[in-house]
Amino acid sequence: MNNIKNKFSIKDLENLTGVKAHTIRIWEKRYSLLTPKRTETNIRYYDLESFQKLLNVSFLNNNGYKISKIATIEEHKLPLLVREIASQSNIESHAINSFKLAMLNFDQALFYKTYESLIKEKAFFEIFYDIYIPLLTEIGLLWQTNTISPAHEHFITTLIRQKILVSTEKVQAKQKHKSNKTFVLYLPDNEIHELGLMFINHEIVSKGYQCIFLGQSVPLENLSDLQNYYDNITYVSYFTVMPEKDDIKQYLHDFDEHILNAPQTEFWILGQMLNVIDITELPKGMKAFKSIQSLLSELN
Fold first, then answer.
1. HSE-up of residue 227 (Cα within 13 Å, Cβ side)
2. Could you report the per-residue pLDDT of 191-213, keeping only the tens digit for each?
């Protein structure tokens, strides 16, 4: 079975490239930059080559090239010019486009090639902040607009997860614990969005702290088991979609009653579900953070 997405509507192109549909039409008519095809029922669509070309055109336009100038460049030279510019500056935008192409084509080789070129120039945390976070934000919007399928999202997030794990293993091998504080990272019941938490784990480990990563969907009652083995625990969790908004207050109350009753215990939380509560009313020992960066800034 051929899983490659090779037909795109003009709305797909707008969602994938950020170029507005009316602008794409103007570029077609005035500069012949793209040539849409038609189905047997006369419905316009764009092929994969058109999408790749539009990514390159958009990249050049965002880097100071006028559309009238781009239209005069031979088509086979566009990718070469893009790579030349990306090697000098704005590598983030080029990398994000490459990762999107890899996702659409289920192209592992392109993902690995793009990542290897990045890691030569950037630290892992820079790749996560500058490229993975914007990429994942775009992917979320593409999924919501049905431009991509859940299979595309799973493909790219699995590869990103692999890179986080590999980099975490490398920093663990060099780890020297700097204090007796232990961080326990977990996601609540039915929460599976773990990439952000995995990166937090990576950064806490890299700063020399003992860190235990429990991962997805951990029942609250299981957390107390850790207190039989460690003192001075800071639990860290990421509420992306769970607990549901009607259940968050009760969840935090239960955490306070059953987990925070132990001495030297804290609970650090972040995620969009916190928007439904007043974080100024959190129990003592709980801290809410608006971003990964703000949470990590708490570490000495």
1. 16
2. 888 999 999 999 999 988 989 99
Strands 233-238 vs 286-289: parallel, antiparallel or unpaired: unpaired
Q: Tell me how far CA of residue 191 lies from CA of 47, 133, 217, in angstroms.
A: 37, 19, 5
The pTM of the full predicted model, rounded to 2 decimals, is 0.72
229-265 pLDDT per residue, tens: 888 899 999 998 888 888 999 999 999 999 998 888 9
Where in the sequence is the domain holding 237, given as residue range(s)? 175-296
How buried is 91 (Cβ within 10 angstroms: 0-12 exposed, 13-18 middle, 19+ buried)?
middle
Nearest to 8 by CA among 111, 96, 105: 105
- The Cα-based distances of 128 to 83, 123, 293 in angstroms read 21, 9, 11
89: CATH: 1.10.1660.10
SS3 286: strand
Q: Is 208 left (phi over 0), alpha (psi -120 to 50) or beta?
A: left
Please indicate, yes or no, if residue 14 is contained in any of the structural domains: yes
Tokens of 290: 């608006």
